[in-house]
Amino acid sequence: MSLKLNSSGGGSVTLQEPSTASNLTVTLPDETGTVVLGGGALGTPSSGNGSNLTNLNASNLASGTVAVARLAATGTPSASTYLRGDSSWATVSGGVTSITAGNGLTGGTITSSGTIALDYYTGSTSDNTSFPLGSYVIIRNNTNSAIATSLTCRVSSGANAFTPGGTSAVAGTWRSRGLCGVEYSCPVNFYYLVQRVA
């Protein structure tokens, strides 16, 4: 069944459910005006031009996806761009280009891939005089020293202790990190935990 409304005049037209399975078609005049649809479900239209529809609520989208190209008016979406808050596609800038191992770490400068690990002494030589930056040893000293005092670190003649007056100088600058023991002998010996800081 087909029903055509003239462009002039007024009133209303009620469409009853067709008695056959054929489509129900309504042809509206190509003029400015308002069409009010009321009563019952409209069903699913087979096709239509929605270019003039306004105030559509996007929260009513129940299925399907919105094409990426429709998300912004400026820029070009690609694998190397991202959508900014001002609705434009932009290229990622900046970022980390290299990582350099700091004090107490090994690995050097890494620009693509590599490993950074803790640096510590693993040797077994009793008279070793080279320790990584940040290493700790205990110095035996007969002078009372404050925390953070710079102390001379040397390997004793018997290679069994670190003392300020030993025979072999240990490389680097060492600072006291606190008193950890006292030996009440003659003279009194103080034992300090010291750290290599340079």
The class by helix and strand makeup works out as: mainly beta
Could you tell me the strand content as a percent range?
Answer: 25-35%
The biggest sheet amounts to:
4 strands, antiparallel
Rg from alpha-carbon coordinates: 42 Å
- Dominant shape: rod-shaped
Helix content: under 10%
Low-confidence stretches are none
Write the layout of secondary structure elements.
Layout (H helix, E strand, L loop, with lengths): L1 E3 L20 E3 L53 E3 L5 E3 L7 E2 L4 E2 L2 E2 L6 E2 L17 E6 L8 E2 L2 E2 L6 E2 L4 E2 L4 E10 L5 E8 L2
Parallel strand pairs: 1-2
Antiparallel strand pairs: 3-4, 5-7, 6-8, 9-15, 10-14, 11-12, 11-13, 14-15
Question: How would you summarize this macromolecular structure in one to three sentences?
Answer:
The protein has no helices and 15 strands. It is mainly beta.
Explain this structure.
The protein is an all-beta fold and 198 residues long. Among the domains are: 68-95, no CATH class; 136-196, no CATH class. The protein is 0% helix and 26% strand. The strands form 6 sheets. Strands 9-15-14-10 form a 4-stranded antiparallel beta sheet, with no helix packed on it. It has a 3-stranded antiparallel beta sheet with strand order 12-11-13, with no helix packed on it. A hairpin with a 5-residue loop joins β3 (81-83) and β4 (89-91).
